Amino acid sequence: MVKIGLISDTHNYLHPGIKEFFKDRDEIWHCGDMGTFAIADELAMICPVRGVYGNIDGQDVRNHFTQYNLFDCEKFRVLMTHIGGYPGKYDKEALNRIVKYKPGIFVCGHSHILKVMYDEKFQLMHINPGAAGKYGIHKVITFIRFTVDGDQLKDFEIGEYDRNPPIVKPK
User: Fold this and answer.
1) Is the Cβ–Cβ distance between 146 and 157 less than 8 Å?
2) Does 168 reside within a domain?
3) Contacts for 6 with CB less than 8 Å, ≥ 6 apart
4) For 32-89, where are the alpha helices, taking DSSP H only?
5) Is 171 inside any structural domain?
6) Domain tally, the chain
7) For 52, phi and psi rounded to 5 degrees?
8) Which of 33, 70, 116, 120 could form a disulfide with 9 if both were Cys (CB 3.0 to 4.6 A apart)?
């Protein structure tokens, strides 16, 4: 059993709630657009990090992470990338890799839209944790935690925070 924290599109910002939300995780998977490698270092203080670089990431992130990450977790093959699309509308290169490697879990970011959906055609779970940073179109900060237990995915939970909380002025 492996407890996963899934995050993307931090754009060089880590919400304070992430540390608490991911505190009991075994691994954190970051689906790109970290902003700087310092984000990976901060997450690694919680637990080990797997990741990929995104389109806004500079050389410091690209020196440590690849565009695609293919690995096994319990009984699942996992394919991770930043720009991946979603069932029925996959990015061309992501689709080629899905067909070639037949992952059971496909995780990506980029859209800033949280999606968890099963793809019947390719028999895989597609997961996009939305965006955890302050930059982009999203109204709320989101990230996900779940458990991979043998051939089961379970205990999905969404961390959701207001991107721009109201400022409370003292009276």
Assistant:
1) yes
2) no
3) 28, 29, 31, 107, 127, 129, 143, 144, 145, 146
4) 37-44, 59-62
5) no
6) 1
7) -140, 160
8) 33
Residue 167 lies in a domain: no
Q: What are 127's two structure tokens? A: 């997961």
Could you tell me the residue range of the domain that residue 47 belongs to? 2-162
The Cα–Cα gap between 108 and 119 comes to: 14
Q: Encoding tokens for residue 79?
A: 């394919």
pTM for the complete prediction?
A: 0.93
CATH of residue 98's domain is 3.60.21.10
Kindly provide the residue ranges of all beta strands, DSSP E only, lying in the chain, ordered along the sequence: 2-7, 27-30, 49-51, 68-73, 76-81, 85-86, 89-90, 105-107, 114-119, 124-129, 140-149, 152-162
85, 49, 79: which is closest to 67 by C-alpha?
79
In a domain, 110, yes or no: yes
